[in-house]
Design goal:
Elements lengths: L4 E2 L9 H9 L19 H18 L5 E7 L1 H13 L5 E6 L2 H10 L4 E7 L23 E3 L2 E2 L4 E2 L11 E4 L16 E5 L9 E7 L16 H6 L9 H16 L2 H22 L3 E2 L11 E6 L5 H10 L2 E2 L10 E4 L6 H18 L1
Parallel strand pairs: 1-13, 3-4, 3-5, 5-8, 8-9
Antiparallel strand pairs: 2-10, 6-7, 9-10, 11-12, 12-14
Helix pairs in contact: 1-6, 2-6, 3-4, 7-9
The structure holds pyridoxal-5'-phosphate.
The site of pyridoxal-5'-phosphate (PLP) has 13 residues, from helix 3.
Length: 360
């Protein structure tokens, strides 16, 4: 068997040991005589799997009992509407920061329910930086302040947590969740689609401060009502059991790596290596303000776009997969989430070095 280095932005590579454990447990989970996929979500065995995953996530992310942890479905995108439906309460407006394509999607969806104030935007400059917080036009009357800590497509990442001045802070952490230490207590709500750093697609983890529960609009679909999901331990209906189990295996793996502090150090090192190489080699370029370069998603261009096809073909032949940039921006993108080993980054740099020598 040979495993490729998969640089896909999502669904993304998973730790090999997690996949191997899932394989070993596939037909018979710990003597139950069945696969996790076949278990009742009400069974003792699955409840243990579910509770362990939640406990490990709380420990990894430093989430206190003031917060509910929900394992929901519909991906991060479903949260773009779930959030305004649940958090507006008596208010009519919400503040959003626009730093890229995912911010814009969240904004567009929220506009169906709320007066959206875009308090800051880096769109004019092509989303290569993050506006200084002193320039943000926030409103004390906003129901919440939403931002996207890591723009997966642009490769732009906040290196600070905004000060929301008492307004609940809401973050789409889909592509940065558990990649570095973050003070969870600063947030009203954190959500993350699982397929980047947590597990299989479809699952979305929501961490919500309990005082924000119970404010959903009357016409909110039951399945999107945080209070209902929280009251039912994320089992109002049948949860995504197998994805939940796999997420739990990833959390155990993360703990074995030393948790998010150790992970953050590794991620910083991996990213600095690749950016350092790109900056030093004239053949490659990355347009992002160095302060706000993502540790997780690293877009880059070649000297000549006409070489993109040849670059990708050569990469494929070496088992360096899914390096094409997002269809909306072109160029290349290497997503190097938690589960991408440093050896994968080294192999990519080795290939880039040789390609530039041959074609530059
Ligand atoms: C991938 C991603 C999404 C969308 O996730 P889905 O699970 O496909 O809905 C939203 N926001 C960010 C920042 C992402 O990286």
């Amino acid at each position: 068997m040979s495993r490729a280095y998969n640089f896909c932005a999502g669904p993304a590579t998973l730790p090999e040991s997690v996949l191997a454990q899932a394989r070993d447990e596939m037909l018979d989970w710990r003597g139950t005589g069945m696969s996790v996929m076949e278990m009742s979500h009400r069974s003792d065995a699955f409840v243990e799997i579910a509770e362990t995953a939640e406990r490990d996530l709380r420990e990894l992310a430093g989430v206190s009992d003031d917060y509910a942890v929900l394992f929901m479905q519909g991906g991060a995108s479903s949260q773009f509407s779930t959030i305004p439906l649940n958090l507006l309460g008596e208010k009519t407006s919400a503040d959003y920061v626009n730093t890229g394509i995912w911010s814009k999607k969240a904004i567009d969806e929220a506009r169906r329910y709320a007066n959206v104030n875009v308090v800051a935007s880096s769109e004019e400059g092509g989303f290569v930086s993050i506006p200084d917080q002193t320039s943000w036009q926030t409103s004390a009357d906003a129901a919440y302040l939403h931002y996207t800590p890591n723009e997966t497509i642009g490769g732009l990442e906040f290196d600070f947590v905004p000060d929301s001045a008492g307004v609940p802070l809401v973050a789409d952490m889909s592509s940065t969740m558990l990649s570095r230490p973050v003070d969870a207590s600063k947030f009203g709500l954190i959500y993350a689609g699982a397929q980047k750093n947590i597990g299989p697609s479809g699952l979305v983890v929501v961490i919500i401060r309990k005082d924000l529960l119970g404010k959903a609009r009357k016409d909110t679909p039951t399945m999107m009502n945080y209070q209902v999901i929280a009251d039912n331990g994320s089992m109002y209906n049948t949860p995504a059991t197998y994805s939940w189990y796999l997420a739990g295996l990833v959390f155990k793996w993360l703990k074995a790596q030393g948790g998010v502090t150790a992970m953050g150090e590794t991620n910083r090192r991996k990213a600095e290596k690749l950016y350092g190489f790109i900056d030093a080699n004239e053949f490659y370029a990355n347009p992002i303000d160095p302060r706000f370069r993502s540790w997780m998603n690293i877009p880059f261009t070649l000297q000549d776009d006409a070489l993109n096809g040849a670059f990708l073909k050569g990469a494929d032949a070496r088992g360096l997969l899914n390096l094409a940039g997002h269809r909306s921006v072109g160029g290349m993108r290497a997503s190097i989430y938690n589960a991408m080993p440093e050896a994968g980054v080294d192999a990519l740099i080795q290939y880039m070095t040789e390609f530039a020598k041959e074609r530059g």
